[in-house]
Backbone:
């Protein structure tokens, strides 16, 4: 994800280097090192999963991308976009408040993500997501589920990462009524584990035609294929993404009940479903859609 000062999740050395590292470490009895030079516990190297016959193009942005011309981005064939809310609790994204309504106004399916910090309070991080969304106009039908951007252990053990991420996911799901998306990669050690395989996957894998699956997943919904792509309306190089399906599939996943309009954009089909009570600093679950829906109902949680 676009932190700019951190390495990509799975470096250009690619899956072959990762597989070789795992093979060598198994023979030598040592912990493997991935293509980015990170060490961790051994991971199963799964076969890459290629896109289906239809894909939809998208982007993800943060303050590092500056002021985005969203109508131009729409005209360049981009159908969805994710905007960053913050890096943990201490670095809110200065462009989110502007990006969130502008993406929708341009007729692009929108989503929001937070760079998850396992070294911070997960409930505080989740509540920051919810308050930022409410302040920017809310999460409505037709918006994508919120994303946990999981790239680093943040100096924590795998057990701590898992426990805190489960808390974040549960808080966000209870408030929004939607199972969040998890953004991660095979190269993220020791963060990823089968514990999150029940969540929709946004996988990062650069320089390949088919992305490798993180531990526990056998399919992906979104794929970040590069962080050096170019898109009209966005200055400089940035992230490019794909949705694995048709535009109709994307709209169905986003929960937009309206007809697919090729050029008319996505119409607002509901009122905001995220409610945040700043006075008490907690989610108002009674006002959230499907507040009683099951949390963590994936097969591995």
Residues:
């Amino acid at each position: 994800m676009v932190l700019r000062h951190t390495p990509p999740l799975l470096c250009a050395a690619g899956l072959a280097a990762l597989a070789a590292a795992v093979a060598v470490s198994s023979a030598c009895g040592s912990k493997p090192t991935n293509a980015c030079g990170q060490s961790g516990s051994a991971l199963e190297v799964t076969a890459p999963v290629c896109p289906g016959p239809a894909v939809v193009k998208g982007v993800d942005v943060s303050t590092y991308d500056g002021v985005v011309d969203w109508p131009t981005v729409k005209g360049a064939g981009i159908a969805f976009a994710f905007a960053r809310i913050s890096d943990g609790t201490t670095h809110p994204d200065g462009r989110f408040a502007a990006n969130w309504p502008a993406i929708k106004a341009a007729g692009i399916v929108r989503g929001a993500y937070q760079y998850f910090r396992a070294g911070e309070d997960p409930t505080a991080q989740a509540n920051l997501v919810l308050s930022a969304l409410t302040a920017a106009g809310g999460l409505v039908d037709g918006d994508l589920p919120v994303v946990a951007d999981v790239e680093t252990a943040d100096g924590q053990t795998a057990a701590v990462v898992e426990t805190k991420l489960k808390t974040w996911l549960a808080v966000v799901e209870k408030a929004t009524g939607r199972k969040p998306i998890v953004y991660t990669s095979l190269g993220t050690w020791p963060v990823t584990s089968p514990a999150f395989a029940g969540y929709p996957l946004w996988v990062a894998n650069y320089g390949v035609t088919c992305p490798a699956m993180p531990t526990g997943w056998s399919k992906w919904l979104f794929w970040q294929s590069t962080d050096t792509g170019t898109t009209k309306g966005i200055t400089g190089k940035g992230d490019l993404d794909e949705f694995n399906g048709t535009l109709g599939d994307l709209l169905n996943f986003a929960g937009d009940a309206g007809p697919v309009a090729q050029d008319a954009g996505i119409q607002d089909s509901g009122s905001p479903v995220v409610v945040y009570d700043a006075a008490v600093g907690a989610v108002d679950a009674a006002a959230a859609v499907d507040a009683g829906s099951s949390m963590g109902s994936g097969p591995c949680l």
About this structure: Residues 1 and 100 are 18 Å apart (CA to CA). The chain has two domains: 8-40, 54-258+268-287. Residues 2-43, 257-301 have pLDDT under 50 and may be disordered.
